[in-house]
Amino acid sequence: MNATEPRRRWWWPRSVRARTALAAASAAAVILVGIGWWLHHDVYRQGTQIAEGQAEQQLWALVDQLNEGVVPARRGAMLPYEVVATGRRTAVAYGGGMNDFDPGTRHVLPAPSEARQPGSLTILPLRMPVRDSSSRDRFDMAGRTYTVMFADISADELSSDEVAALGVAADATLRVYVVVLPRTAEAITETTDLLLLRAGLVGLVLIAAAAYFAVRIALRPVEAIRVLTASVTASDPRERVTVPATGHEITALATTINTTLQRLDDAAAQQRRFVADAAHELRSPLTTLLASLEVALAYPERTDWPAAATTAARQTRRLQALAEDLLLLARLDTRTPTTGPDTVDLTALASGLTEQYPLTERPLTLTCDSTAPAHAHGNPDEYERLLRNLIDNAARHAAHRIQITIRNQDDWVVLTVHDDGPGVPTEDAERIFERFVRLDDARSRDHGGTGLGLAIARDLAHRHRGTLILTPRTLGACFELRLPRAATPAED
């Protein structure tokens, strides 16, 4: 394993399909657990409410029977109940499982210590007593606490015959108990939990499988893109991936990859063109230099050595200028655009170049038509190289005059270099900024430059977040440089 590669967890799957399936199953598990927890409590609550409703219904049915002087039957009751009375040791009536406590000997639930309002319902928890016998009651209630409903009946409201039928004193208070059994709610809840567990497990498996195969199908175009991209080489980046017609994210990915491959193809073509042009440009001065030296060495007695040395020096200077331009272009291609921390006054820079520029070969007038400061952020040396390249280009083509103008226009500094030469055809307005392009092919290369000056100037302009274009003019060529304007200290 590579030392810089992050360590993988042994339990974490590497496949995107498996990871997505695991993530989907985990999210579904969390959701299902939350839903199951809510259903569990809701089912239990509703089951408890049903049990309480049944108990209340049975309680009032027992009260109605007692008010009529009828002792309720032991059998037929769904829930355990017991009727106790003051002044009586045994229960008046019982059933529904209370008979397992042997209440015929004594009542199980407490007799009323104080009478409550007849017809009122009271609900409270009561603990069932532990039975002395070893037999097990039907509902296993002994020693457990249950919710109990009860209502009181006053014997004073009953007739003497009804009191006698019930076997209680004339001033006794009867209390009817009904025990609320949660077993129905518990049974329903347990059944629901089992169903939810089974359905949840099956659902998790189905969700994981669906997510796995859905991602597998969705990634098929990605796999196709990977296969095609793997076949792309640096020497031949012409392969393109198929763009799906679905319009989803894969389409955007394929489009982006094709755009990237196109840029690589363009860059490779540009590099091949650049190498070929550089080799061609280097071959010319080297051939001239080598031929001059070989002739001089072959016929030393007939060689004009000062002329040969002059030719060698001139060709060497061409080689030096071309090498410097190539190195500068290489640096510009690898560096990102920046404006730099320095502030340069382009007016002062242009004025200085105008005064220092050598115009010895033929009479030319070079003027700078600006006095107001024009500040821009950037590297002063790079700005000087940019302006010098523009002036060199104008000097090679101007007939009599070169004019430099600088002005502040809103948030921009606009600098123009205008010559009165033959101008540039409209169809070549962009071509002249390409590397190693010369429109004056008939002119000697010794005087025509390297063909890199304008390309370097535009690259420097772009590096400083500006633009360099050729603007149309009736006479001559006019190059317009736009750079972001820097605020002066007075403006700050």
How far from one another are the termini? 57 Å
- The chain-level mean pLDDT equals 81
Q: What's the number of domains? A: 3
Q: Number of helix segments?
A: 10
The strand line-up of the biggest sheet is: 2-1-5-4-3
- The 3D shape can be described as rod-shaped
Largest sheet: 5 strands, antiparallel
Helix % is 40-55%
The radius of gyration over CA amounts to 52 Å
Number of strands: 12
Structural class: alpha+beta
Beta fraction: 5-15%
Write a concise keyword list for the protein shown above.
5-stranded antiparallel sheet; Helix Hairpins; alpha+beta; Heat Shock Protein 90; 492 residues
Structural write-up:
- 47% of the residues lie in helices and 15% in strands.
- It folds into 3 domains: 12-218, no CATH class; 249-331, Helix Hairpins (Orthogonal Bundle), CATH 1.10.287; 336-484, Histidine kinase-like ATPase, C-terminal domain (Heat Shock Protein 90), CATH 3.30.565.
- The protein starts with 15 loop residues before the first helix and ends in an 8-residue tail after the last strand.
- The chain has 10 helices and 12 strands.
- The chain is an alpha+beta fold and 492 residues long.
- The protein is rod-shaped.
- The model is unreliable at 1-5 and 441-446 (pLDDT under 50).
Short account of what is shown:
The protein contains ten helices and twelve strands. The chain has helices at residues 16-67, 160-166, 183-218, 220-230, 249-298, 305-334, 346-356, 380-397, 445-448, 453-463, and strands at 81-85, 93-95, 122-127, 145-154, 173-180, 343-345, 365-369, 375-377, 401-409, 412-419, 467-471, 478-484.
